[in-house]
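Forwarding the complex inputs:
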Amino acid sequence: MRITIRSFARFREIFGTEKLIETDSFASPKTVLSLLCKEKECRDTLFTPDGTLHPHITITLNGRRLSTGETDETTLADGDTLVIYPPVSGG
Amino acid sequence: MISIQKDDIDIGALIQQSRNTHMGAQVVFVGTVRDDGIEAIEFEADRTTAIADLTTIAAEATEKHGLISVDIIHRDGLLQTGETILVIIAGSAHREEGFAGCRYIIEEIKRYVPIWKKDITASGDSRWHD
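Prediction (whole assembly, two chains):
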């Protein structure tokens, strides 16, 4: 299945504005994000040394923010869009 | 009005448009680009989600603080020092609700609305805020 990943701000400069990831069925958001990161520097941007997503990163699935548990447990469907936000700084 | 836009904001016109005869107060917050040794700030937003979030925050502020009207306009793109970043207008019957509602709105924007800023120095160096 194909999942679109979009990024903003600092993450856009690292991962690009939009990428299409091909993955097996039943993948979770965390699994797909790990496929985005091949180099260590890239992985360290999203994941802690023990492999969990950094808590300051926000992930949305088709426009809905995911909780920490949901990034591990949600099953994605073909055509879903994940967006990764670095910490915000508006206002 | 809830908006994210590149154009400058006519604050006087916005205050007039927002006002009605039920209000006894309009609390206005204006965020500007401060010169911290920088030349400009580049703002980037996920506009679709940010507009939805701002609309939610305005509704919450209205409900919690009894506001009569809420306007939130945030700019994106490259803004020089001294330029307007954000205008919030909280219209209310009395000043207490207006101040509380306006404060609620700016704190919620800073907490989670997907807008980011990157400092640009005179030498061309840049750095995203975390």
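The helical segments of chain A are 9-15, 29-36, 40-46, 68-73.
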